[in-house]
Amino acid sequence: MDEQARKTALRMIPYGLYVLTAGTQDTAIASATINWVTQTSFAPPLLALGIKTDSAVYDVARRTGDLVLNILGQGQGGLAFAFFKPAGYADGKLGGQDIRRAGNGAPILTAAPAAVELKVRHVVELGDHHTFVAEVTNVHLNREITGRPDEAVLHMKDLGEKVFYGG
Q: Is 119 helix (H, G, I), strand (E, B) or coil?
């Protein structure tokens, strides 16, 4: 297989950007910017998320099973970059960002336009990112979303010409 062609073709898949948070007040808290997310079922509502196996959020997600997918909005590239590296939890803030707790205890970034509470139902252990299949247990809109909801989302392409993931 031509490696450059493979990278080009797989990078043509559009990716939204999200900050995944895991953990509760009784456990470690971890977070990471992720982009491999898709809805896989309406009933029950299920998402599939690709999570890098050597990340802290992977470890906490496996142990607790309680997650929040914080959906980033247009103009929040700085927030995406802030969670590309491990973010500390101190003084009630995660990576310096205000949070509130979801019903499952995981952090919701109040700056994100929307957040989805998740419960891990299955993990497919293949590759350097494992696929978590998680059930949507609640949703939070931190602000009113006007127009098409899919146009309100921050996409990988919004970070600039040289920022890629995948391929």
A: strand
